[in-house]
Task: structure prediction
Amino acid sequence: MADRLPRSLDPSALGTVPGARHYFRYPLHDDDFHALRQQRRLLGYYAAKPLYGRLGRLDRRGRVDRSAGLNGEVIALFVPSPARSWSQARLVHARMPAAQTRREDGRRNWPAIRATAEAAIRRELCVAAPIRT
Result:
């Protein structure tokens, strides 16, 4: 099972996805993308990030205003399989409790952020989450 982003999907070409550069201001790399599966079937690939409370507000240097902290919103960039270009990619919005976006040590809680993004993508695709036994 290949869990790497296909070579045909070059992350440097993400500017063609409407709204992607608004949320993903930094360059994405293929290791920022995670495979999303339904049992063994590959549904696609996604990259996710939590958003700050004052989305759209920039500080004096033109950077995202982080003073409000993470607000519980998560944005995912999802490209379904077997996509060969970014033309099929879309943004998926999700929400989680803001307190769960950070771990006790203050670092981002990536497992919870990714799980939130995956659940939102599955809802959009109308695919049930895998049953874990």
